[in-house]
Structure formats: structure tokens, C-alpha cells
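Most newcomers find our protein records easier to grasp once they have seen one. Nothing more is needed to start thinking about how sequence determines fold. Here is such a record, shown just as it appears in the course material:
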Amino acid sequence: MEEIRLFCGGRPRGQVVLAPGDVRREVRSSMDDPGDGLYRAFLVGERGELPLGVMEPAGGRLTVSRRLYSRDVAALGRLERGEARLSFRFGESAWRETDAPGEASALPELRARLEKIPRAWRRREGERLLLALPLEEGGPFPLEALFCLARVERVAGRLCAVYAFDRQGRPLPP
């Protein structure tokens, strides 16, 4: 058995255990459940990483087990650590109305356009901020210069153009 530490948020929080195997290796990752969201585990080596999947809660712990090809594990080189990454934080899924949509972007020209929009909704999805701008029948498409980065969906009962922004306020593809 090979055991390496599992890091979460830069701190050791659990372990990854790799069973020996010729063709396939059983890999099990576990840590205490912080209770704040869904986590994905990764096996990290000197030459890359392998996703292990979404960690499942059970008995106050988060775990995931996978059978990986030995050649895929070997391709990582020396194993450095496991990583648990927050992929969805509980409580972030609700849309909240905002009267300051310009705060979503740090880009001056985009911020100026967003500040002219009187009503919008926002929510966080991990590292992304989603901003929903209502579509008005017969009106211009909100942020028409970025229309290719929008997805159209219903938010608070209204048809909206939804844009994603990174932590620095830069627009992201949908």
C-alpha cells in the first residue's frame, strides 16, 4: 500500500491510499467533511494530475474510490499529493437580486455598461460569478458586444442573458 497526503485549501486534510496492482490500482481518497459543499479529488504527480471524481459524504467523511490503470498512475511520475477541490459551495446556488450589476466587472468599459442596467440577479458558482440580465421584448440584447458569451435561461421567472465572470471581473465563456 502506498499512502500520500490529501490537501484541501493548501492544508493536509486527509489521505490517498493506492493499492498495488499490475494492470489496475485501487485508489481511495478520504478526509473529514467540512460540510460546506461538494469536493472533487485529484491525484497529483510531478508530470500532471488525474481526476478521481466527486467525493461522497458518509459518516462525517468525504470519500471517493476509483480503479485506475497502473500505466495512468505511472505516467504522473513521482506522486506528490492528493488534492480535494471545492467545486460547489452550499448556499451559492440561489439567485439574488442586485441593483449594482456593475460590480461584477473590473473592466471600466464593461462596468459602465452594466451600471446602466437597472435590474439584474447574481449568484456564485465556485470561482465564477454569474450575472443574469433581463431580456426585454423588442429591446437590445444586454451587453450585445459579448452576446456570444451569454446563455439564455429563466431567472426569477424572467428570460435573461446570463454571463459568467472570474474573480477579477473578466467575462468567461458559458
Remarks:
- The helical segments are 70-74, 108-115.
